[in-house]
Known about the structure:
Layout lengths: L1 E5 L12 H10 L4 E5 L7 E2 L6 E2 L1 H10 L4 E7 L12 H14 L4 E5 L16 H4 L1 H10 L3 E5 L5 H12 L4 H4 L2 E3 L3 H7 L5 H7 L8 E3 L2 E2 L2 E2 L10 H10 L5 E4 L7 H15 L3
Amino acid sequence: MIFGAITNSWRNQLMEQSLAELVAEAQARGSRHVELRQTCLGDCESGQGADWRPNLAGLQAIADGFPDLAFDLAMALPCLTGQVDPAGEQFQMALEGAKIVGRETPHLRVVDPGSFDAAWEQAADLPESALGLADLAREAARQGVILSIENSGQPIGSMALLVGECRARLTPAEGDYLGLCPDPTNQLRRFPDRDALGDLDALPMDMLKIVHFKQARDGNPHPTVDTGDLDCGQMLRLLEAKDYQGPAIMEIPPHPEVFDNLTASYDFLRAASGS
């Protein structure tokens, strides 16, 4: 498993330090992967919402400056609640950015911030707009880019249902590029009566493209990955038992001491490891 950080943890620091300086600090703290998240990329992005664009030259400089780090690019995209044109400029530039920072294994993570009235329990519950994800995955696969999807308004099992239905519309080779970014703590917030770790354990390994660790206590964000509402140690051991080898991102909240909190999160998980 590859422990990593995410740039939206560094909102406070980005007001005074460059993205490159913060990536260097994350690497010094033991990060082997950094998720480059839209809205927290400093000079490597411009615009907001539908006008957001990655600065490809800036991303190239980050990738070149840290040859020993792995990266993925992450963006908000209303691809489940609305229609996104796979040939549109924003999606195409995001794919290009993912290829620049991802090198041999480019990865674009998309999160739809929209919400839904109820969890999807069967294929008939899936909105037609959400099934448009298949078209985006087909285009990503054509360019050799892994596409992972996240939505905090649906349980992990419901998102797996969506990926399965989208894969049915793709060739097997195309479908291999489409998967999930599960975040069990997000599920706890909206679906406290569902077994978030059980849902994670039930995921087929080929759907696990990237994983987020975070913690809450009594429903409130906790500054480190530690004990709390979710058994993060058990989550780690579950992933180890599945032989998950991909990125495990510490999505810890912004904080003046965020890098100390990052180190503490890594230390906690290493102590909890079953390996």
